[in-house]
């Protein structure tokens, strides 16, 4: 590591502290974090397998659900195995390029997930407000293109973040990151140069993704509710709204933790560092854990297929 004026340096690697302030509890913290990661992996892999096997689920909503499952696997796997390594073995060392790569994966796929939720809101809007055209509008090709657009948007939006750090801010005050993974603001805070461009760009992307996507989703549901209120009977209204319940739950599970974590990280200076770091990890773990549960409970076809698994195993025995 090259050092200049005994203050700033060019690091070849960083050191992740895990949960700062709770180092003595790292071994115990590994139990809930490891359990949650296992549940997330099993749940999302199960969703992917069930949708692949069950041909009746080869519909736009379930294709989008598979995209969410794949994204949740990337988000959790890009951070939690490293965190468990820190908890168990004190393996906090991470190379500079690996750190920037982890930063890109976390923020890119969080952006992609927001885009998939927006596409799912469009799917629900067409299915309820214009059901006769749903199969013509949301073809398999269109669904694939919407997923690809969400991915490309994430790459275009987030790609400049690690590049700007690599090219504009090569010097750092310290190589110790008081976090469990390479979060953008946690890394930028260590740099010696002028980070205003990075901060403004990060805030702008956060606004574009979190605010505009939320507004677009809310607007789609306003139109959906207007269409539902025009139905003849309360039973028909409840049945139609029931098709949106899983999506609404998944949206809240995703946006509420990420909004709370972002606000606390930027403005909650009085919040203890361990709480901020725990919240930053929970927003990467809560959606991967709860999304499969919500859709398994709320979706009849998925629920029935999962209930068939124990019966098949009993017959085999």
UniProtKB/TrEMBL annotation:
<keyword id="KW-1133">Transmembrane helix</keyword>
<keyword id="KW-0812">Transmembrane</keyword>
<feature type="transmembrane region" description="Helical">
    <location>
        <begin position="25"/>
        <end position="50"/>
    </location>
</feature>
<feature type="domain" description="G-protein coupled receptors family 1 profile">
    <location>
        <begin position="43"/>
        <end position="295"/>
    </location>
</feature>
<feature type="transmembrane region" description="Helical">
    <location>
        <begin position="62"/>
        <end position="91"/>
    </location>
</feature>
<keyword id="KW-0807">Transducer</keyword>
<feature type="transmembrane region" description="Helical">
    <location>
        <begin position="142"/>
        <end position="165"/>
    </location>
</feature>
<dbReference type="InterPro" id="IPR017452">
    <property type="entry name" value="GPCR_Rhodpsn_7TM"/>
</dbReference>
<feature type="transmembrane region" description="Helical">
    <location>
        <begin position="205"/>
        <end position="228"/>
    </location>
</feature>
<comment type="function">
    <text>Odorant receptor.</text>
</comment>
<keyword id="KW-0472">Membrane</keyword>
<feature type="transmembrane region" description="Helical">
    <location>
        <begin position="240"/>
        <end position="258"/>
    </location>
</feature>
<dbReference type="InterPro" id="IPR000725">
    <property type="entry name" value="Olfact_rcpt"/>
</dbReference>
<keyword id="KW-0675">Receptor</keyword>
<keyword id="KW-0552">Olfaction</keyword>
<dbReference type="GO" id="GO:0004930">
    <property type="term" value="F:G protein-coupled receptor activity"/>
</dbReference>
<dbReference type="GO" id="GO:0004984">
    <property type="term" value="F:olfactory receptor activity"/>
</dbReference>
<feature type="transmembrane region" description="Helical">
    <location>
        <begin position="278"/>
        <end position="297"/>
    </location>
</feature>
<dbReference type="Pfam" id="PF13853">
    <property type="entry name" value="7tm_4"/>
</dbReference>
<dbReference type="InterPro" id="IPR000276">
    <property type="entry name" value="GPCR_Rhodpsn"/>
</dbReference>
<dbReference type="InterPro" id="IPR050402">
    <property type="entry name" value="OR51/52/56-like"/>
</dbReference>
<keyword id="KW-0297">G-protein coupled receptor</keyword>
<keyword id="KW-0716">Sensory transduction</keyword>
<protein>
    <submittedName>
        <fullName>Olfactory receptor family 52 subfamily M member 1</fullName>
    </submittedName>
</protein>
<dbReference type="GO" id="GO:0005886">
    <property type="term" value="C:plasma membrane"/>
</dbReference>
<feature type="transmembrane region" description="Helical">
    <location>
        <begin position="103"/>
        <end position="122"/>
    </location>
</feature>
């Amino acid at each position: 590591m090259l050092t200049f004026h005994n203050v700033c340096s060019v690091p070849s690697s960083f050191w992740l502290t895990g949960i700062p302030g709770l180092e003595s509890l790292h071994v115990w913290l590994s139990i809930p974090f490891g359990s949650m990661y296992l549940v997330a992996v099993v749940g999302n892999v199960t969703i992917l397998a069930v949708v692949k096997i069950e041909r009746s689920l080869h519909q736009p909503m379930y294709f989008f659900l598979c995209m969410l499952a794949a994204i949740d696997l990337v988000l959790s796997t890009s951070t939690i195995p490293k965190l468990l390594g820190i908890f168990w073995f004190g393996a906090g060392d991470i190379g500079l390029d690996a750190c920037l790569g982890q930063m890109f994966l976390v923020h890119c796929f969080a952006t992609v997930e927001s885009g998939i939720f927006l596409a799912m809101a469009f799917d629900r809007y067409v299915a309820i407000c214009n059901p006769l055209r749903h199969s013509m509008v949301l073809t398999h090709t269109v669904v694939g293109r919407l997923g690809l657009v969400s991915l490309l948007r994430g790459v275009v939006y987030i790609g400049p973040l690690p590049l700007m750090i690599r090219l504009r801010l090569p010097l750092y005050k310290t190589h110790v990151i008081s976090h469990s993974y390479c979060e953008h603001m946690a890394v930028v805070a260590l740099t010696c140069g002028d980070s205003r461009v990075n901060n403004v760009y990060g805030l702008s992307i956060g606004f574009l993704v979190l605010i505009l996507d939320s507004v677009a989703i809310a607007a789609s549901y306003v139109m959906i509710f207007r269409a539902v209120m025009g139905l003849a009977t309360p039973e028909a209204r409840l049945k139609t709204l029931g098709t949106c319940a899983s999506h609404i739950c998944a949206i809240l599970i995703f946006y509420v933790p990420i909004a709370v974590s972002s606000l606390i990280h930027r403005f909650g200076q009085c919040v203890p560092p361990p709480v901020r770091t725990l919240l930053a990890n929970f927003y990467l773990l809560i959606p991967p854990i709860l999304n499969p549960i919500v859709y398994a409970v709320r979706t009849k076809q998925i629920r029935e297929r999962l209930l068939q698994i124990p019966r098949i195993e009993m017959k085999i025995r």
